[in-house]
Amino acid sequence: MDSWVRFNTQSQAKERVLAAQYACMLLGYTLQKSSVATDLQRTISELEAHMSLTRKVLRLGNSVEALQAAKTTIHLSDSVLRLCLTIGHLNRAMYFACDNVLWAGKIGIISKLDQQKWNHRSFYYLFALILNVTRDVYELYLLLDCEDCCRSTKSSLSTSPSSAIPADQLSSSSSTSSIEVTATPAVMWVWLRKRMHQIGTVLYNNPPLLLDLLKNGCDIFIPLDKLGIYQTGPGFVGSCGLLSSVLSIITMLHPWLKLKP
User: Quick check: 65 and 71 in contact, CB under 8 A?
Assistant: First the structure.
């Protein structure tokens, strides 16, 4: 019950509930493929448009929140995190500001607004998502590096100081080196498999990083499709948006799953 109260009182959570817009997009795409009555398709399309407009209303003021977040992250000690998070928040602020202007144009507050031009606001969103993915990869790199250091420390402690290589093994170094040269592809494949397993283990043991990486990976297809850089269609975009919204709701219900800072 406490989780639901916390979820219900957050404006961002309400916005994520309205990501049923993506569910409507996915449903409309499915109905179109199954040749259902056009009246039902038109109803779903109108519902999606209304939800999109409602989301824009709930985004009023998000630019200020993004600027406040940028003022906080600019003081981080890690230079990579400081750069990625601060510039990402600034791009989100620009995106939300443009979104507010577009909303004002759609309801008639601003007349003669070039909506096609303002639709390019998705460039800000795309750049912010690229920085978010970069931050996730950097966090993953730090965790992998930490695990490698722990493993090397344990192996060095377990190795006996008196364990030296016998002379007969030293004499066969030339033959061993030739074997290693021929076995390089196999060795690389084994190393790659071990590395992928290590990455999977690290992500499994760090759910906040895993969820954030999945969410950003889903989100990034939305501006790519909208800008025409990589078009995937309404079905795929609707699925990605819906999955991203579900992941956001999970992090709101369980704050410990939110990646910090």
Answer: no
Angstrom distance (rounded) from CA 38 to CA 31:
9
Nearest by Cα to 91 from 125, 62, 131, 52: 125
- Residues with Cβ < 8 Å from 201, sequence gap 6 or more? none
**Contacts for 251-258 with beta carbons within 8 Å, 24 or more apart?**
251/208, 251/211, 252/6, 252/7, 252/10, 252/12, 252/13, 252/16, 253/3, 253/4, 253/6, 253/7, 254/3, 255/6, 256/208, 257/207, 257/208, 257/211, 258/208, 258/212
24-40 per-position pLDDT tens digit: 888 887 877 776 667 77
User: What length does the chain have?
Assistant: 261
Peptide bond into 166 cis (omega under 30): no
Phi and psi dihedrals of 28, rounded to 5? Answer: -60, -40
23 and 242 Cβ atoms separated by less than 8 Å = yes
What pLDDT shows up at residue 100?
Answer: 85
Amino acid (one-letter) located at 227: L
Q: Which residue has the tokens 């939300």?
A: 96
pLDDT of res. 73? 94
Which residues are CB-contacts of 221 (< 8 A; sequence separation ≥ 6)?
230, 232, 236, 237, 240
Structure tokens at 246: 């579900």
pTM, 2 dp: 0.80
Helices (H), 34-164: 38-58, 62-73, 79-106, 115-118, 122-158
- Angle CA 207–213–218, to nearest 5: 125
